[in-house]
Amino acid sequence: MNPMNNSLKFLSELDKQSDIILIAHTSPDGDTICSCLALFELLKKCGKNVQLVCDCVVPPILSFFENSDKFIMPEDAVKSPCVMTVDCSDTGRLGRAYPLFENADVTFCIDHHITNTAFADYNIIDAEAAATAQVVYFLSEFAKNNKQNLKIDSLGDIDKNIASYLYGGILTDTGRFAYSNSTADTFYAASKLVEFGIDVSDLCEKLFMTIPLRKSKLLGYCLEKSKLFSNERIAYSFLPLAVVKEYNAGNNDTEGIVENLRNIDTVEVAVFVRQDDENRYKISTRSKKYFDVSELCRKYGGGGHKRAAGFNFEGDIDSFIDNLIAEIGNEL
Ligand SMILES: [Mn+2]
User: For the chain, which residues make up each domain, given as ranges?
Assistant: First the structure.
């Protein structure tokens, strides 16, 4: 189904709301933050009062974006009858912001995860889109081309600053247009956004070439400790809590490690485990050409995309990982 079929209904329902809470997902990435910031600006142009909520602080690498300091913690949000989730594959991704969603009268969801079950009252989910920022771009373009004589028509008024948010969201979720999720629509949206005069090399440098030393060292540690299985087609690495603490590593400091494991020439599937607590682990998976990691992760309560997915685990990690790697090996 063309997700744009819902757009008219989505926009006219949104027009009725005066106060809207936008929720970014936990462990926020560039796409959720940038898509929220773009919607924040666009909805303000429509005369809405908007609150930006996330249960984690905005990663330092994204803090150069204007208004990134406007995100507030869920407990500081003023209760609102209307909530929109942004780039969240399921309500678990709302973290401590979930009660805001649960208690809202009307809910909206804008997303691009294949595992999204359309959990809100009004949903725009395009699993073909490389980023939620791309979905926001097309929704905005739709508003511009299908004016309803409503205040929500102003959702079509992208300006240079909003264009830089949306381009930033697309850039981060496509790995600078490197992943297989980049389609003609992705490049079309990017090209339209570049027409607003944004500085593409400056955005790329700030988002990809500004790396704290501890992050590079953590990557070095994980590659050094990595192991290969199933004729070197599975790469695996484990980052223990002690090392996380030693480097004072935040969530974004371990971003990119699993991609580096997948980049090993012989590898189809990469599994990276970060220990978050005594008994709690975050498992990230990536695949290169054919293995569907979203299906694998869904079995363990997680989700994501075919080539990038993850889940959280609590319990005896050693035997779990042995079984997980055997399971992947059997399906390869
Ligand atoms: Mn995304």
Answer: 3-208, 213-331
- Ligand 1 centre distance from Cα of residue 81 (Å): 25
d(CA 87, CA 12): 21
What letter represents residue 77's amino acid? A
CA of 193 to the centre of ligand 1 (A): 18
Contact 192, 141 (CB under 8 A): yes
- Report the predicted TM-score, pTM, of the whole model to 2 decimal places: 0.86
Helix (H) or strand (E) holding 222: helix 213-224
Distance 115 CA to ligand 1 centre (A): 12
The Cβ of residue 28 has, within 10 Å, a number of other Cβ atoms equal to 25
The rounded Å distance from CA 106 to ligand 1 centre is 23
SS (H, E, C) 254-275: HCCHHHHHHCCCCCCEEEEEEE
| CA gap 86, 306 in Å, rounded | 20
Measured in Å, residue 243 CA sits from the centre of ligand 1 at 28
CATH domain 213-331 topology: Diaminopimelate Epimerase; Chain A, domain 1 (3.10.310)
CA–centroid distance, 39 to ligand 1, in Å, is 14
Q: Rounded to the nearest whole angstrom, what is the distance from the C-alpha of residue 22 to the centroid of ligand 1?
A: 15
CA–centroid distance, residue 24 to ligand 1 (Å): 10
The predicted-structure confidence for 22-70, as pLDDT tens digits, reads as follows: 999 999 999 999 999 999 999 999 999 999 999 999 999 999 999 999 9
Strands (DSSP E) contained in 46-112 are 49-53, 71-72, 82-86, 106-111
The answer regarding whether domain 3-208 maps to CATH 3.90.1640.10 reads: yes
